[in-house]
């Protein structure tokens, strides 16, 4: 069992099985009349002793100290409420909450937190896959569990994270299917004059995410200067549309508008004013008098544009024009691919798309690089073989 305890350290010993140092403090007696003890783990005797001192001090101050009997399910909900909700955006919290409530807690919530093993997690992932859950969703469940258990370690509830011993299912990346230049022109011609023309033009030319485009407000658009600032995203959460800050600092960016977008936005502003006049008292958005405020892209009564309605119209246009059934998000890929083909620097494309690292841009659009490399090789051949 290891060395004897030191002076004033309480019961501390080194476990022969894995070399971890273990201590415990007395939490008194529970309702069942049994003594409760809180185990404490560390890599060294000193680490355990310091943790015990902090925990004893908390105990004297009246802080409730969790015991080993806490279930994994109760910990997950505590983690969601006390750590996730105060530290992440509402959309991120909503995703974590679904992975916990719908998938993880029903299957693993009954297991004691201190007794959760890698085998439990592996069996859970395998079961979910056999039940038809996608590898991507199972991988997200795994990531959620891993993050939660890392906090359990920080809170000194468990000595190590069993999720790090399990390999998450491999996800197949969604195939990128951007428009060709001819298809892009066909699509924009098909929506010319439609009330969503400007939205499609901006999304395709600047590579905006759907939520970024829908969150645009007129104060984000400077038509005289020809700039557009991305600072928020719009998503449906808990049954309502919520506008929140972009996920990262890199996603907040000021972009130069191509002339085609400036023209489309000017026409769109006039059309939106006509919508307000036609709607009369039913108009729920600003009237655009004086200082320009309110959403750029709205319904016919001035409310934020519903993402599902945008997807529906986008699919209808594709079908009518005989274009490939791509996702709205593929307009973002179209922007990046067309710029790469034209020789625009990947670094500039990274800034345009709001990627945090150049490696992300190069990884996502690796499918374009072989053709660019062939063009570069041919250009070099012509340069070096030209007659002097």
Topology at a glance:
Layout lengths: L10 E4 L6 E9 L5 E8 L2 H16 L11 H16 L2 H19 L9 H13 L4 H20 L26 H10 L6 H10 L3 H5 L6 E2 L4 E4 L1 E6 L2 E6 L7 E4 L2 H21 L27 H15 L8 H12 L4 H8 L4 H7 L4 H17 L3
Antiparallel strand pairs: 1-2, 2-3, 4-5, 5-8, 6-7
Helix pairs in contact: 2-3, 2-5, 3-4, 3-5, 4-5, 7-9, 7-11, 12-13
Walk me through this protein's architecture.
With 388 residues, the protein is mainly α. Helix content is 49%, strand content 11%. The protein is built from 14 helices and eight strands. The strands form three sheets. A three-stranded antiparallel beta sheet has the order 1-2-3. Strand 6 and strand 7 form a beta hairpin. The longest helix is centred in the C-terminal third of the chain and has 21 residues. The N terminus is likely disordered.
Largest sheet: 3 strands, antiparallel
Number of helices: 14
Could you give the count of β-strands? 8
- Order of neighbouring strands in the sheet with most strands: 1-2-3
Helix content estimate: 40-55%
Average pLDDT, all residues:
84
Structural class: mainly alpha
First-last Cα distance: 83 Å
Query: β content, as a range?
Result: 5-15%
Report low-confidence residues grouped into runs of 5 or more.
1-9
Form type: elongated
Radius of gyration: 28 Å
Quick structural gist:
The chain is mainly alpha-helical and 388 residues long.
List keywords for this structure.
three-stranded antiparallel β-sheet; 11% strand; single chain; 49% helix; elongated; mainly alpha; 388 residues
